[in-house]
Amino acid sequence: MIVDLTFLQEATDGNKELIQQLVDLFREQVDEFRGEMEDSLAENDAERLRKVAHKAKGSISALGMMDVRASLQEMEDVCIGYNGGSLKEELGKKVESFLRDIRQALSELDEYLAS
Question: How far apart are CA 99 and CA 94, in angstroms?
Answer without folding.
Answer: 9
